Every structure is written in C-alpha cells, then in structure tokens.
Write a sequence for this structure.
C-alpha cells in the first residue's frame, strides 16, 4: 500500500512540474491566409487534378478491404453567391463528366465539402463530409443503404492546368 501511495505522489508531483505556468502565453497559431487567397489556391489545386485514393464500406472493411477509386476534376470554381462551388468531374475512366454544385464550408484554412442528401444524377442521393489539406483528402460518405470512409491524395493530372 505504501508503494502505491508513493507512486501516486511521485506521479502527481511530476505532473505539476510539467504543467505550464498559469502566466505562460499560449502557443502562437500560424496565421490563416485571407479567404480570397484560400479560394484562389483551392481552385488552382483542384482544377485539372485527380482525387486518387480509396473507400471503404461500413461493416465490410474486413471482407472487402480498401477499394481504389479516382475522381478526375476537370474544373472547380467558386460560385458568386454563398458557399457553393461548381465541380465538373468524372468518376473513373469510363464514366461521363458531371457538373454538380457542392457546398464547401471552411474550418480555418481547411475546405470541407458538405453535402446532405444531394441527388447525384444517375447515382442516387449522397451525404458526405470530405476535408482537404496539404494535398490530401479524407472523410465520410453515405448513400441510401450504405456508407463508409474515403481518403487519398490530390494529384495534378498530366496535360491539364
């Protein structure tokens, strides 16, 4: 019992000695670029790029593993009103090109595609939250009867841009 009390006392003292002092200034966050710069950079990085990555299906991760997929982004442009962006994209190499307005919200310097029960022509209704940061993307998606995770890299495509 004495050893347990001694150990707890030592851990408490160590914790107090490592804790920042009340008058220490908080760490400085990096400055976030202005919204116009963020918009311009996002349009440039996404237009003519491909989202190359993987998706999972909830409950079937073990049996199905990761599934590869590619979205070819022909153009991505901010619309004049609200938080909507026009995405012109093709799923895989055989699909037809679709043009779809998608809502993007910003978490600081991070764009997040935000759609809830949006009808994608020929594919059904989808809900998703997909964030983009430093050349990568990750998020969740769902359709009427299934959903999962999505993640990968934003890759500039040869011959575009």
């Amino acid at each position: 019992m004495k050893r347990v009390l001694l150990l707890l006392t030592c851990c408490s003292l160590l914790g107090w000695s490592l804790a920042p002092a009340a008058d220490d200034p908080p760490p400085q966050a990096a400055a976030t670029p202005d919204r116009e710069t963020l918009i311009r950079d996002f349009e440039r990085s996404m237009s003519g790029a491909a989202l190359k990555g993987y998706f999972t299906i909830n409950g079937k991760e073990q049996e199905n593993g990761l599934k590869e997929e590619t979205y070819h982004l022909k153009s991505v442009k901010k619309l004049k009103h609200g938080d909507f962006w026009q995405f012109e994209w093709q799923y895989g190499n055989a699909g037809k090109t679709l043009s779809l307005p998608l809502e993007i919200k910003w978490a600081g310097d991070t764009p997040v595609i935000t759609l809830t029960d949006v009808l994608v022509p020929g594919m059904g209704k989808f809900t998703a939250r997909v964030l983009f940061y430093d050349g990568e993307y990750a998020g969740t998606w769902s359709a009427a009867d299934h959903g999962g995770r999505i993640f990968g890299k934003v890759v500039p495509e040869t011959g575009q841009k």
